[in-house]
Amino acid sequence: MVVLGIVEAAGDGNCLFHALGYLDARGGMALRNEVAAFMVEETDNQRGFEEAWREEADELLQGTWGGHTAITAYSLKERMRVEVHVIQADGTISVVDASHADVANDADAPLRRVLYSNGNHYDALVELLPNPIGWSPAWKQPLPPRYFKEDEAPAPKAEEFPPLAKAAGGRGRKQPRFSTPKPVGKHTKKGKGKAPAKGKSREEEEPDAKPKKGAAAPAQYPVMRRCRTKTTPPPELRDDILTELSRIPVKPRMTHPHQRQENLIKDRLPTQLSSCF
């Protein structure tokens, strides 16, 4: 039993050459141009098919998708046998030998298979093992042969955000919480590490020692008292720079030239105003 796998070709008008190019590990567009140029050169050598080859070559050069004549030209150019598997309405397959007459009887020529479906599309066919892994039947079909298509792999899940501790570089370790006071250094009181006297606890031996955790009394806020008496001394009793400056005698009038001019204006201004009235 022959088990064939379907490799879908892009339906962009070049599906035939994409399928043949996949089987030859070549690009479909490059193969299309090579087949079109070969048909132009070999048209006159195809007795009885000159007109069909000439029309097919013109269509290929204009961008039209290729057909049976292009497959025959490919068979002669590459010296390969070509089988076209056509899907019928009832799900059965009819196999058509599209090889060129000069290659059809050559048993040493490699065999290429393509699938023709919907009357306008070609796909590549590859031979698989009897029980292919990762492939499923392409449609309900009788035996033989059987055609498979590759199962689509599930799309990868989107990567979730890592935990905050991991993203911060903590590697999942518990982050320290600064809720306890900073330990005292070398400036601690002497005798802190000494054992209490016999018959006495550490609290009795050291009344200023820090109480045990959990037995500490709640902290008391200091009582704020409002001061109602005036505590600022009078100026004559202040011993500051303002008091010293207040003791320096100051002349009522300065001897600066500008000050003299201002004084003259002040002295004459009342007399001038009175004369106006």
Walk me through the structure.
The mean pLDDT is 76. This protein is 31% helix and 14% strand. Helix 2 (28-42) packs antiparallel against helix 3 and helix 2 crosses helix 4. The chain is elongated. The chain has a domain at 3-150: Cathepsin B, Chain A (Alpha-Beta Complex). The protein has helices spanning 15-23, 28-42, 50-61, 68-78, 101-104, 164-167, 202-205, 241-246, 257-276, and strands at 3-7, 81-87, 93-97, 111-117, 121-128, 135-137, 146-150. Strands 3-2-4-5-1-7-6 form a seven-stranded mixed beta sheet. It is built from nine helices and seven strands; from the N terminus they run E-H-H-H-H-E-E-H-E-E-E-E-H-H-H-H. It starts with a strand and ends with a helix. The chain is α/β, with parallel strands linked by helices and 277 residues long.
Helix/strand-derived category reads: alpha/beta
Separation of the first and last Cα atoms: 138 Å
CATH architecture of the domain at 3-150: Alpha-Beta Complex
Order of helices and strands: EHHHHEEHEEEEHHHH
Rounded to the nearest angstrom, the radius of gyration is 54 Å
Strand content: 5-15%
Average pLDDT metric: 76
The largest sheet has its strands arranged as 3-2-4-5-1-7-6
Summed up, the helix count is 9
Give a brief description.
The protein is an alpha/beta fold and 277 residues long.
Task: Write out key terms for the chains shown.
277 residues; Cathepsin B, Chain A; alpha/beta; 9 helices; elongated; 31% helix; seven-stranded mixed β-sheet; 7 strands
Question: What are the SSEs and their pairings?
Answer:
Layout: E1 3-7, H1 15-23, H2 28-42, H3 50-61, H4 68-78, E2 81-87, E3 93-97, H5 101-104, E4 111-117, E5 121-128, E6 135-137, E7 146-150, H6 164-167, H7 202-205, H8 241-246, H9 257-276
Parallel strand pairs: 1-7, 2-4
Antiparallel strand pairs: 1-5, 2-3, 4-5, 6-7
